[in-house]
Amino acid sequence: MRLDQRRAEAYLKLAMSRCPTCRSEARPRAQNAAFPFCSARCKAIDLGKWFTEEYRVPGTPLAVDQSSEESRTGDGNPEQPEGEPDGV
Asked: What are phi and psi of 41, to 5 degrees?
């Protein structure tokens, strides 16, 4: 093996990042559609953790307004004043 080739392989090994899900080596973006993950499976596992709220972005909780909560769970139509037809 030539010295240049060994250097290139050593550089690639150092440049490889680790998959945040399983910690195995993840190929560079040009060779890996799932980057920074090692595979589509690890990418899906990570997405599932966001969906199930295992991962959260830190911050202060927002106060939930009672009227906005009702409008999200209700039929979505605000009360109309008496005497005015819908859509006016």
From this structure: -65, -50
